[in-house]
Here is the input.
Amino acid sequence: MSVLRLAIPSPLRRHFDYLAPIGVSNAELVGLQPGIRLRVPFGRREVTGYLLAVCEDSDIPLSSLKHAVEILDEAPLIDPQLLHLCRWAADYYHHPHGEVFGTLFPKRLREGKPQQPHGILVWQLTTLGKGLPETALPRSPRQAQAISLLMQKPVIENTEFRDNSISATVLRSLQDKKLVESHMMSERLQPIRVNEGLTLNSEQYAALNAVSGTKQGFSCHLLEGVTGSGKTEIYLRLIENCLQQGRQALILVPEIGLTPQTLARFQQRFEANIAVLHSGLSDANRYQAWEAARTGNAHIIVGTRSAVFTPLASPGLIIVDEEHDGSYKQQDGFRYSARDVAVKRAQIHSIPILLGSATPSLESIQNVVAGRYQHQQLTQRASSGGMPDIKVLDVRRQELHAGLSKGLLEAIQEKLQLGQQTLLFLNRRGYAPTLQCHDCGWIAECRACDARLTIHRRRGRLRCHHCGDSSMLPRQCPQCNSERLMAAGLGTEQTEDFLRTHFKQWPIYRVDSDSMQSKGSMQALAEDINKGEPCILLGTQMLTKGHHFPGVSLVAVIDADALLFSTDFRGEERMAQLLTQVAGRAGRADIPGSVLLQTHYPDHPALLAMLSTSYAEQARVLLKQRQESGMPPAGQLVVLRTDCPNAEYGEQFLQTLRERSTPFLPSGAKLIGPLPSPMQRRAGKYRCQLLLTAPTRGAAQTAASVLVANAEALPAKQGLKWSIDIDPQNVF
Ligand code: ADP
Ligand code: ZN
Ligand code: ZN
Here is the structure.
């Protein structure tokens, strides 16, 4: 008797075996393909499971296996390559397979609902059909003709077959042979039109030729191009080539970078179906975009992190824009890196992938050095304005107004009078990061975290930026009843207030996650600013990514010191990336740009490096340091974290885990800790971590398996939760 082996969305890292649904014969089971959905009993509920394999036997006595309730799909909704990718990702990140499938499927399908037919009937080849030799079906010329048409064009509307005198009966017999499948498509297939692009400059031309001239199959390219060098133009050309081959292009962008501006650029160039996938979509829209990609109805798929798992009917190209961006790494649950999964996906599909950035991650640079990735460089800006001029503004002993020195205020004034725009960067939202009592020294701290509360004066509230807790802004000190409460430190609200009184006649725009909450506010803002009138833009990191403000000629970092003293091993890399990206907003049109960095440490080596060397040079120095320290990408890193209401228990758990695992670690693998996380208490839980370093990926994987197996065998009492993070972004 055959057994169904399933992945079930559950925190358990194992598969689950079931018997056939009652009334389904063994012969029918054997024909089932991996990837189909089934409804099965699980605990006291019924859940959607995903078929991994049909097996001859089970580790569990057949008599104690339950019957599946229902087979939900006749054929898998995802192709074998995507299934392969999911299983690879679950193994590599040591995450339960069922939860990985949960990431892949839209809500409707996760809930076990049927596909939603709508629109126009279209046909395409099944995997079986795709593998058919040309000479198959000699006895039914009509069927052979239908297959041959589908080999030339992956998705064909029903009406087009009728025009070619291929009847519904012909298609149905092919469907019975499982060679073709039909589905409903939301929009009519449009002939794709490509509008005229810019004339490439010689660097762009060379980069494009190098990528498109690479031999067919998998290849990975790092496009390292300074801000404004015309990387997007290269993306557009590559997408054009891909569409001409009748294939789909998948473009990943950082969460914050999916601006209407980026999308508008794609829409202007291509009259094609573009599916957009990001976290702000409704379930229905997400499902529709997913189906459009899966069926080949969408030619171009643009999306954030999780879009890397979108099924594609005929993938031809993957692009990861701003590949260094931290938002590609999921920081909770299934902790995958969308960039790394994208590279694996391109490998599985045997297609090219392009990683683009002005400030590539050290990981990607290392892959170039090792010869795994090809390297294309754009060293010049595409538009006439050259690279901005960067200067340090020493603010020691200077009077500061809401963080702004006299020198900076004068520079802003000058730009405004020339009719130009200024962008001020301050990576701290709210009014001030600390509320303090002047009489007794009391400081407002979060009840649930080891953190201070931020003052949000506009809303009259104190907020924790770590757990989201919020309370009324007090008028009196809770400790001594004094009314002399002071705001200490600086946030965007405060600087905005000052700018409004100091530059009364000019418009001021504040851009942070508080002011940009409603949908479309960023778009409205970008439209306003790009009218080009003189103004001041003040914002957090939100301002620095992917936005084009051609009228900005001065960029200032209000508090460069806040970036200088990070304890994380990636701190310097992140600082160089952030400063380079912020600076890159200056002078993007024909006005030359200048950048001012306000600091109390004008001689800090990291700042001096910003002035005298390019990001590319700084990155090579940092890479050398990582090689000496054995940290990623030179060595491998894994973190096992606990999160527990009881501080001691979390540490004990990791200590026991360490003792049990140490004898089984591969050579070169080392454990460090347990150590409390730098911010130990968060949202009422105490966090502790065990670090694993290893010289190679293989050793890190073996060691991670040892840790996971031992952690699963340990009792997790007292509400303890543990998680493993492969290739972590931060070690806290
Ligand atoms: P990146 O993505 O590298 O930051 P973009 O592709 O956004 O750069 O290009 C920056 C600016 O330069 C845009 O305004 C774009 O229209 C312009 N640009 C790009 N390529 C060319 C070119 N070959 N000729 C003229 N202008 C160009
Ligand atoms: Zn007090
Ligand atoms: Zn908190």
